[in-house]
Amino acid sequence: MRRFTTASILGCTALMGFAVAAPAMSDEPAQAAAEAAPAASVSLTFIGEAWNVASGGLDRGTVLLDNIDLQASLDLERLVGWNDASAFVYALYASGNSVAERVGDLNGISNNETGEALRLGEAWIDQGFAAGRGSVRFGLYDVSSEFDAGEVRALFMNAAHGIGTDYSQSGLNGPSIWPVTSLALRVHYAFEDDVYLRGAIADGVPGNPDFPKRTTIDFEDGDGVLLALETGLARDGRLWSLGAWTYSGEFPDLVTGEDRRNAGAYVALEETLLSSASGSGIDLAGSFRIGVANGDVNAVESFISATLVATGLLPSRPADQLGLGVILLDGSTGYLSGLADPADREINVELTYYAQLTDEITLQPDIQWIINPVIDDEIEDALVFGLRLSVGKTWEIR
Fold first, then answer.
1. For 168-207, how does the pLDDT look when each residue is reduced to its tens digit (9 = 90+)?
2. For the purposes of burial, counting CB atoms within 10 Å of the CB of 315, is it exposed (0-12), middle (13-18) or buried (19 or more)?
3. Could you tell me if 324 and 350 are in contact, meaning their C-beta atoms sit under 8 angstroms apart?
4. How far apart are CA 351 and CA 370, in angstroms?
5. Residue closest to 164 by CA, chosen among 314, 266, 82, 248
6. SS (H, E, C) the chain
7. pLDDT in tens, 310-354
């Protein structure tokens, strides 16, 4: 077993950053300077949240969360002459209590909640091929950054509007997704007519479950791997995707304890419904997603979400967005058998408003109503109010 800790990973990242900061070895500096994309960019973002469980759930009261994100994107071709290659590094510091523990739901209320920790979220190099149609990516990788991802769903603060709960619940320590990721190899290829195909193989147990606050890469016997595959159609205003995932390792049956395979699949659709460019006055987009997972080993067996997002409702604030999202999830037979008074399903209704105050500052109030938290009739429906403040700055090198 080989182990790498946060310190060693950050050390390697620092060396890589020193190397790519060397002068570019291009024969055409004027052409490189004319490129639209920067040769390197660094962004620093502070995200602060306040949540209040006004009624229901397991406990009431106010919870504060904060997150500091540092990201660096590097064009290795322009910086060091490495043809069609790029690199990305993402580190974060987070603190605060848990709003999900107060509500007791299965989806998670905030996609910014991770507990107090200093982590390296991603650190990878991407190598293009086939004249830009394909790429191979290797390193510390967040599967949800490309798999089961969508632009419309990204507005919402509930974590399950990103990667679905049917997927995110899987694995011994979750799949390789924010905030605990693992080494992975991802291959992507774009065909004609906007059709794409991508696949990934990642360590089956990201991080170290015994040390949840550390960024650690462990290769333990029996970890196995996570295999992910997705295909779809991606063009302006439209994203259709079909994905499947499975683990090579086995997991205990929730009832019998016998070893079972863990796998699932999902279908997601996003469409532009109205466009201000065509005279409607506003932009309106919607999404629909359905996913399933093996109910023998997972608490959530099926998951459905739908969203609507309107942009430019106020003529004086054309960038602001108003979103309405709904989530329905069904528990597996094994999970429900362990509850004294199981409900039909857990339902989450979210109303959120994203206000772009300046180029660097955004404010997002949010309301969530959770019906049957944990799919348990003994827990009262919860009403939660949230407010997110984001302050960010980006520096570019051209």
1. 999 999 999 998 999 999 999 999 989 999 999 999 999 8
2. exposed
3. yes
4. 12
5. 266
6. CCEECHHHHHHHHHHHHHHHCCCCCCCCHHHHHCCCCCCEEEEEEEEEEEEEEEECCCCCEEEEEEEEEEEEEEEHHHHHCCCCEEEEEEEEEEEECCHHHHHCCCCCCCCCCCCCEEEEEEEEEEEEECCCCEEEEEEEECHHHCCCCCCCHHHCCCHHHCCCHHHHCCCCCCCCECCECEEEEEEEEECHHHEEEEEEEEECCCCCCCCCCCCCEECCCCCCEEEEEEEEEEECCEEEEEEEEEEEEEEECCCCCCEEEEEEEEEEEEEEEECHHHCCCCEEEEEEEEEEECCCCCCEEEEEEEEEEEECCECCECCCEEEEEEEEEEECHHHHCCCCCECCCEEEEEEEEEEECCCCEEEEEEEEEEECHHHECCCCCEEEEEEEEEEEEEEEEC
7. 999 998 999 999 999 999 999 999 999 999 899 989 999 999 999
Two tokens at 214? 């550390």
Q: For tokens 């944990």, what's the residue?
A: 374
Please give the structure tokens belonging to residue 131. 């004249």
